[in-house]
Amino acid sequence: MGQYFTNDENLKSEYRNIVYNYKEYTFNFTSDLGVFSKDRIDYASKLLIETYFENAKPERKILDVGCGYGFIGVTLSKITNSYVDMIDVNKRAIHLSNLNIKNNNANCNAFISNIYENIKDKYDVIISNPPIRAGKNVYMEIILKANEHLKENGEFWFVMNKDQGAKSTIEKIKDVYEVNVLNKSKGFFVILCKKR
What we know:
Layout: E1 16-22, E2 25-31, H1 43-55, E3 61-65, H2 71-80, E4 83-88, H3 91-103, E5 108-112, E6 123-128, H4 136-145, E7 150-161, H5 166-173, E8 177-185, E9 188-195
Parallel strand pairs: 3-4, 3-6, 4-5, 6-7
Antiparallel strand pairs: 1-2, 7-9, 8-9
Helix pairs in contact: 1-2
């Protein structure tokens, strides 16, 4: 089976439904084979957005990089009343994201982009649970090049496990961003990077 960051035209479909509750909100997501964390909402993504909800301002223009089936972007849009662009290199992920945008009545737009290739706008916030398995070059490009697509005073939010290089990544990006670790849980760090 191919990785979730590739397009496998021969992969069959096996839809499944995933429910997420946050305070008074309930979301229903359709997932499928060939996307990241297809059977459940992964702990890191949940930690990332719930930390965001506790710290962030509402009504912002947000970009979700590596959106998968749309969990981060859809929930951010609804709970913070924000507009969210959602991108992924995986066609199936984008198809599912658009389904989930519609089903949850979210103010989002999902489209194919290999990292920032098809991004023309600037954002208040860029957020990502970066695809570690795609390799260091890929996830470092997501982190470092976010800076080019942020508005002045923009923020890049991401989550990474300490066993997958969170601490060394923080050291490498301090020249580009003002870096703060906002949350730590089960080995995962939620990291806020402010544009210098």
